[in-house]
Fold these 4 entries.
Entry 1:
Amino acid sequence: MRDLILIVEDETSMAKQLKWGLGDLYEVEVAGDAPTAMDVINGRDPQAVILDLGLPPTPDSSEEGLRLLEEIVSRKPGLKVVVVTGNTQRENAVKAVSLGAYDYHTKPVDLEELRIVIKRALYLTRLERQVSELERLVEDKAQFFGMVATSPCMLELFERVRKVARTDYPVLIQGESGTGKERLARAIHALSDRSERPLVIIDCGAIPETLIESELFGHEKGSFTGAHARQIGKIERAQGGTVVLDEVGELPLPLQVKLLRFIQEGTIERIGGRETIRVDARVIAVTNVDLKKAVEEKRFREDLYYRLNVVPLHMPALRQRPEDIPVLARHFLEVYSREIGPRFKGFSSSALDAMARHAWQGNVREMQNRIRRAVVMAEGDYIQSADLDLGEEVGARAGPVRTLREARDEAEIAAIREALVRHGGNISKAALDLDVSRPTLHDLIKKHGIAVTR
């Protein structure tokens, strides 16, 4: 099947010329105005677009063509748009490139040059799709019991989990909130010989202090007011399995003594009971508190700390493993898109850039919430930085307030200067590196007043 090229041109003779020049290589469809063009783009998904800026109802200006270009780039970021203009004011062409056009040509069009540009555009599109597919394969291989990562620090952590799961030693998992510490604890249990036995998770920070002892160790009937029946504690319910003490740093000091005795001797006593009960349960402690500091401040028992810290595992913050940000983002987008029906193709480049710059104080949990919200509220085929509510922060980090045009100009200048330096001032090689035509680069150099030295 041949690639589909959409020509958006209101002049019949020009449209016929372009169709004749490309028809031997590609399937070509023509649209004479913006609404028809968008219908073709949404319905037939062309691989490239040739766009005339002078379109009805204002064929003598570039207003309608630029508006259509902006809509195409917003809705189909991966679609390559080659602009054709009869307007002698090059600033319109430069503006088109800054809006996201792949390249531009002035009328009359050199068909041979246009064929080369289209060929390169389609080749680049195929490469981008192959990269996207490879990234999807990498993501599939990067999943570890619900956690997704490709960064070296996380892969090393997963390997440590596999090793420690083969033992019954206590494990202390520390890290910031939202990093996935509980998931790591679940992975240890799932990989252990206890995986068929109970996994009991106790949120020590969520249980009132007056009830937590009973929740952990149970009580006998009549042991206190309101104890109308015997209650089996959660530690006892984990018999043969694993007990996860989430936010263990919140445990009151008196209870830390009882927990220490259980870890040392493997026995508990219910409140009001006289019987010593032996419980065979592995202990995994989880906390976002610096327990070593808590020990120094006398808020946590030192002997309990060392009993829990037999195998320490640290869950790194998301900002410490930036390689995982795009992989996690694609994973969550796929998960949440399934819930409401797939309608997104991915993230725009601005969204990926915004996520890379964001501090992620809430870590993976924050990313989940932002993407879940974006999936509900976003429009178009790609998630934008504004949908993630990240655009404002990125702007704030950039220093003084700038207009979008100023930001684009700065990015253009930096990219052009770097390319010229790399190639010793050779315009042709720099243009090839920047993926624009030689005339386009000449115009950009002239526009920004960039000095070219060899």
Entry 2:
Amino acid sequence: MTQTAVNPLVRMQEDLQRAMQKPLERRSWAMVIDTRKCIGCFACSVACVAENVSPPGVTYRTVLDIEIGRYPGVQRILKPMNCQQCENPPCVPAANEVAPGSMERRPDGIVVINYERARGREVFEAVRRACPYRLAVFFDDGRFHTDGTPARQAYEQRPALEYGRNWSRTQDQPPVNTVRKCHFCLHRLEAKMLPACVTTCIGGAMYFGDLNDPNSLVSQMLKEQRDKVMRVNESRGTKPRVYYLTDTPVLCKSHHP
């Protein structure tokens, strides 16, 4: 009798539970995105905005629509994009040169921001210039979606749980006037929950787990589909921890933003 396949979300949740039993430095978080399954619904972007109570102009996750090739061999690639959580993140030294202690890379691979130090346009511009990934970092300029209306809506007044703390956006207080970006939903991981984008993906294109676990779904996917793997701007030596699966990895590499 054929064994029933385990739902990928259930599998990843089990992987996560196993990883969280290990010390921080023994985890190695990574994301795998199968561009062949992405349907461009932007559910991941909406989930991200809701999870992190993001203001106008701040979207940790977006979906790029890319055309590659020439007629009649044109292909359309839908590529979700967020911070790549690089092993060699150029943004960290750039930010810390302007504002010491404003960014760091954790032992588990997540690049994090200190909202109380990464403040001001100067820090943001330094990070933006250093980052080779378009649509990876954003600046919270203090706007609200309901600006110009009589009252703030409840969803904008809800505090965001990021970096182990509840943040309420008030004038000139963090995270207003700070650099912001994806953190793999660190607060959810610490609660033993998968990132919001992964659990919301309608097409089942998002995968997440611990690369230090050879039995994790992400480890096995990257091993079994090694000829389909692409990492954006890999030649820059950043060693991004977001992996893309595509049938044409070489062609896709030459058409990244």
Entry 3:
Amino acid sequence: MLITWTSPDVIISSLVRGPIAMNSSTSMSRRGVVRLDVPMNLTTTSIKRAVTARYLAAVLGATVAVTSLSIVNSGAATPHSSVPTILLYNAQGYGDYVAKAFNATNPGFKIVVDDDSTGPLFTKIQAEMAAGNPKWGLFWADGATEFAALDKSGYLVKNVVATSTKYTAGGAANLPTDRSYAPTGITTVGNLCYDTVATKGMKLPTTMAGLTSLPKGALGMNNPSQSGPTYPLVAGVMAHLGGLKANVTPTTAQVNAAIKKGEAYYLKLKANGLQVRDTNGPTLGAMESNPPTLAMATIQSSACYGQILAKPKSQWPTGKVKTLDYSIALPGNIAVDNKLSPALQADAMKFVAYVTSVAGQHAMLQGDPYGDSLFWPVIKGVNPRPGLPSFASTKAYAINPYVWGPLENQINAWFTNNIVN
């Protein structure tokens, strides 16, 4: 049986945290969808959304217990069942499942998972490091700009991934030179996600530039200040328009020119009625409504495919995904806190080695099959879940996170003031 509920507000601030009492067939995806068909790791130390827990209790008649246990005073490694634990700050829908699989075969220490969205976890890490009292040991999330920022601040262990790791071309293209974080999978953002009913009779564009010529009000996107994958999209469009590739360090003048071209592009979209909603939930909801109130949007590939490919019944049978002349690569990454003791750093790097192995990639593919597991593996010999096209067909464009990460606040502020408002 599959029961789904999509929240109108996908990212909910985790003001209340605690374990959730569920049976082994219950899980939650990053998109605010509650499903009853995916195993869940009951060692999770927090839930993403207390509201989701209350909803489940009412609708399913389940007993959902949100306890007052807090991880605030627990360190990155604490005694647990006589073995040390390492706290994983996790923003991946499959993270709990993968940690459970890893713990089952690594009895010397335990990975304990703290689930939340990327933004709150990144903010928490920065606050902990600034206070000199880090709780986290591992950080796992989509996007590279946050990881580049932590690396530039001197917070990450270097060379966390072995040189022998068998990365695909897509994985290798997103690996930093100092190996301070490890790509673990790739989704893309900027794909054209559309509804076949709402676009009936409409000529679909074939390029990103062609989006400016759509019928007025037909196109939507998420707000980069609210949606984690959307800032890389905006930065990626700017980088592509400026010809700034990931393996090149541009001059300040080149970056500024690229930003100006990107601003002009988004101003054209706004003049043509661009609809901006906060996150995937409201954007997808507008396309899935009957009748649709939005024809198409440029959002993360896994969010679109998750709704379309859901089993046993598609949540969006009229949904389609089209790749334009390019999309933006959105690598999932994992990093290790360099304030861990040498022994715990070595243990944490065993988990990194696991998720960049064939076995670990397969575990990731099983943990959230209609959500974050719809990624392209970055390790040779591993195939994506059924229903995804080849990664090459996405024409994914990689950006330099060390260039675009420090500009996030500036670009998001411009987008808010000139596009959203």
Entry 4:
Amino acid sequence: MSLNLDTSYISKCNQALKRAYQQLGKYEEDSIDYEIYRSAVIKEFEIVLEQSGKLLKKVLKPYLHTNKAVDKLVFKDIFREAGHHGLLELEEVERWLEYRDNRNSTSHDYGEHLANETLSLIKQFIEDVNRLIKVVDAS
């Protein structure tokens, strides 16, 4: 079974995230350049997270009994189902759920503490996205 899903957009966004994260490390935390790159990292994180859920939802269609069942899945359930069907490891699913919780927090209260909390997740997130892209490409 081959779904032939296009992962070029998420790949490009993940590359932008990686580059912004690398650039961020070149600046002092109190500089305007740091602020610019921190904002870019957080925005790309949000975009990539949403794209990840959308792509994985498409991958799950053959695993569930109806398209309607897939359509009813909310973000966290998409990743739980992916773990249930062996598309992701349990540890990966737990991290994706943490990413979502973090995203929900930052969208409601964009403070410096939450921004820094997001930054602490980015290195692993980039790796998890690369793994997810491989899962999607293999489906």
